[in-house]
Amino acid sequence: MRDALVAAAFRLFPERGYEQTTVDDIVTLAGVGRRSFFRYFPSKEDVVFPDHERCLADMTAFLAAGTDEDEPVRRVCDAARLVLRMYAENPTFSVQRYRLTKKVPGLRAYELSVVWRYERALAEYLRGRFDGRPDGALRADVIAAAVVAAHNNALRSWLRSAGQGDADSAVDHALGHVQAVFGTAPAGAPAEDQEDVVVVVSRRGAPMWRVVREIEATLGRD
Questions:
Q1: Which of 5, 25, 50, 113 has the fewest CB atoms within 10 Å, i.e. the most exposed one?
Q2: pTM here?
């Protein structure tokens, strides 16, 4: 029934316009009563975004299931990918919704409120991970905003292209920038991904040429 209501709404919106389509119109086409509509959707705006509550719950659960071993920036980037997965499950519907939202100011405002809730979920997780660090809350908020901005930049480019191309690669590329700026290498990362540090111990007063030779020998260079 829920899917039938969404399908009916998105048949009517292009024909009549969003503002001109009423809840009565939607339930009539779906063949159900008004009470059934409001059992699933608190408002007409909610029928345009039927999957965000589920996705937000999935994201919150994913973050809560993390451990102290998880690199926090990578964890929130992986959480953001759950939103992409939701959009990619039904590209046709996602593109149709994107085009409708662009035309209706009220829906754009509603969408911004949804995005803000995703950002708050990411920030709350990061605040817990950065608790006690200098500027921990500030860092959490900045990283959460950066993750959302990077994800949405790639997602909207994909939607503008009518769902063509590889959305996963585009989002991975965008989130890679966030991880490069704010992330840290996880324990056990390959040596080439970590900064190479060499420590050489030499006798006090040793001539510089001998120190240089010891460094070159340590690095395996002539």
A1: 113
A2: 0.77
